[in-house]
């Protein structure tokens, strides 16, 4: 079974990993021009959010 983890980076995207390998970075600031992927625009937009871990059910 593949282990999936999702972590919200401080002031940045949601990082999705499968078995410890980065699968994608999803935008959560809404500023990306390449949604649903993060394109780094969060840094210029001044997006502020706490880091957190999101539990994915097995
Ligand atoms: S979180 Fe990176 S562009 Fe939105």
Automatic annotation (TrEMBL):
Coiled coil: none annotated. Residues 11-48 form the Iron-binding zinc finger CDGSH type domain. InterPro entries: FeS-contain_CDGSH-typ, MitoNEET_CISD. The keyword Metal-binding applies. Keywords: 2Fe-2S, Iron, Iron-sulfur, Metal-binding. SMART domains: ZnF_CDGSH (SM00704). GO terms for molecular function: 2 iron, 2 sulfur cluster binding; metal ion binding. GO terms for cellular component: cytoplasm. The keyword Cytoplasm does not apply. This is Iron-binding zinc finger CDGSH type domain-containing protein.
